[in-house]
Design brief:
Elements: H1 2-36, H2 54-83, E1 89-90, H3 98-123, H4 126-129, H5 152-168, E2 171-172, H6 173-190, H7 213-222, H8 233-237, H9 245-253
Parallel strand pairs: 1-2
């Protein structure tokens, strides 16, 4: 009973924390960028002729609240499983060596990028899409309000690596937090609706393989392409990157 009470308390605490994140990174940024800076940043708008309507915004907020509650319970489950010894999460950086302590972040980013690409393509299968992923794609012109707007099943699919990987791989707690933070920031930029990466981004060595805001925005606009999360590697290898991605990016920077 004590463990259940602790789990419930932890779930509510995590849900409140996620609600705070959504308020800051979703609602507040939406108000700042889409309302306060819309004239100043007009030239950086990825889709100048917006198809957004008020009911899309309310849809995104509604499903985001559902995702917030679900993520809170899943995060609490990680803590509970750790207490029972099912997780290989640790606080002592020396437990598995500083080399692994540092390199694991890069492993997690590249692993999750591959996982996201293939699970994302799976959710675009005609027999799956309309039941699950269509919820997120209601916003063909995404905004910061869209960052948590997922069907519960999709939310579970995207959260699974955060839950399962620590069961098999030693992960430093601060690295887990950093991974989740970077994922949130990337998610925000992907759905910002404005291109904030510098104009020479796609010409920079290695950095050009990091997805710019335009990359995921085009996915929402056109649906079948640009499936990548952090990087463009899988889209390039599998030839699913939109052929006009680079031109689209440059055209925004030249406005």
């Amino acid at each position: 009973m004590t463990h259940f009470a602790d789990f419930l308390q932890s779930a509510l605490r995590e849900s409140f924390f996620n609600l705070t994140l959504y308020t800051v990174f979703g609602i507040a940024v939406f108000g700042l960028v889409w309302k306060g800076l819309k004239n100043v940043w007009r030239w950086r708008r990825i889709q100048p002729k917006s198809e957004q309507r008020k009911h899309f915004f309310s849809h995104d907020i509604l499903f985001s609240f559902g995702s917030i509650l679900m993520a809170g319970f899943l995060t609490a489950l990680i803590t509970l499983l750790d207490q029972f010894g099912y997780m290989k999460l640790y606080w002592d950086i020396n437990a598995y060596g500083t080399t692994w302590g540092i390199l694991q972040l890069f492993f997690l980013l590249f692993f999750y990028d591959a996982y996201f690409y293939w699970s994302h393509r799976f959710m675009h299968h005609p027999k799956i899409y309309r039941w699950v992923h269509k919820t997120h794609h209601k916003s063909t012109d995404p905004s910061p309000l869209t960052i948590f707007a997922f069907h519960p099943f999709e939310n579970l699919i995207e959260f699974l690596p955060f839950l399962v990987l620590p069961m098999f791989i030693p992960i430093f707690w601060p690295i887990l937090f950093l991974w989740q933070t970077l994922d949130l920031i990337n998610n925000l930029l992907a759905h910002l609706g404005y291109e904030i990466y510098p104009k020479n981004w796609l010409r920079l060595p290695f950095l050009k393989y990091k997805t710019a805001s335009t990359h995921h925005n085009m996915h929402h606009e056109k649906f079948n392409g640009n499936y990548g999360l952090y990087f463009t590697f899988w889209d390039k290898w599998m030839k699913t990157e939109f052929s006009d991605y680079a031109d689209r990016f440059q055209s925004i920077e030249k406005k």
